[in-house]
Amino acid sequence: MFALDFSLLVDSVLIFELAFLIDIVFGEYPDRIHPTIGIGKIISYLKRKSKNSNPRVEKANGVLMALLIMLVVALPVFLLLFWLRQLPYGEILYIVAGAILFKATFAIRGMGHYTKPIAKALKQNDLDGARKWLPFIVRRDPNSLNERQIISAAVESIAESTTDGITAPFFFFALFGVPGAFAYRVVNTLDSMVGYKNVENRNIGWFSAKLDTIANYIPSRLTAYLVVAASFLLHEDWRESMRILQRDKHKTASPNAGYTISAMAGALNIQLEKKGYYILGDDHGISAEHIPKALRVMTVTAVLFGLVVVVPVLALRIYVVGL
């Protein structure tokens, strides 16, 4: 018989809530101890070892690299939390350690750390000051962008990060616990480092890029519709958010990114453009004020995702699997 273990559900919800609180109060961990930085170093090392002149061998090496890093990162997290739970006061240790670890897989306040200075600089007509912050969030050449394009890049980054920086880790935490969130963070970091169709990465990174697309498929769609709901709660234009989402969601090369970016464009009544790649939304004017507005939509969307998706999925997982 299936049964819901309320103590397990409460523990998981407490881990989620405490991790959320740690993020809002303290923001990102320092780089020297941030697990994502460590994951990036592992990827860089194994990428060099996996290169091969034979494209088929290199592709196979890319598959092995991705799976190995996921195992190397997620398994120790699982074993540590399992061990802590067996100790005296293990439930408390499990919750605290789980929250501290889980926090490393997502960033809410961190996005504001990089985008608020852009808005501040633009309000002071300091384009050079705004451009200095862009490399932290996008790969575009900041010196080639005007004010409108800088704002668009910042809002696009906030919208896309709502999924891959927040709700997707939430989703995999709900499905597979803290180890699942870490496995997702490995996949997303792999995609950001090797998931490109250039000569250097097209073989070694093809599997990582496919994994990232699959992993973000459901979270991106759930998140987009919760952006619409968040815009309603924040008295933004939720009807336009829904309209632009339905119209423009397939206009990006990525099958996932267009969902949250188009929903955000509609919510704020702005047009978001990556020159030569896509134009989403309608042009009603854009200003630096849209950056903090996008951050508010992102934060409320994260809260809604926790309430509407994470808690029910956690309950279902514990009811069916008992873990």
What does this structure look like?
- The relative contact order is 0.13.
- It is built from eleven helices and two strands.
- The model has no long low-confidence stretch (mean pLDDT 95).
- It has one domain.
- β1 (272-274) and β2 form a beta hairpin.
- With 323 residues, the chain is mainly α.
- It has helices spanning 6-26, 35-50, 55-86, 90-103, 109-123, 127-133, 147-194, 206-233, 238-248, 257-268, 290-320; strands spanning 272-274, 278-280.
- Strands 1-2 form a two-stranded antiparallel sheet.
* Structural class estimated from helices and strands: mainly alpha
Supply the number of helical segments: 11
Mean pLDDT across residues: 95
Give the percentage of residues in beta strands. Answer: under 5%
**Bulk shape:** globular
Helix content: over 70%
Nutshell version of this structure?
Helices cover 73% and strands 2% of the residues.
Task: Describe the protein's topology.
Blueprint lengths: L5 H21 L8 H16 L4 H32 L3 H14 L5 H15 L3 H7 L13 H48 L11 H28 L4 H11 L8 H12 L3 E3 L3 E3 L9 H31 L3
Antiparallel strand pairs: 1-2
Structural features:
mainly alpha; globular; two-stranded antiparallel sheet; 323 residues; 11 helices; 2% strand
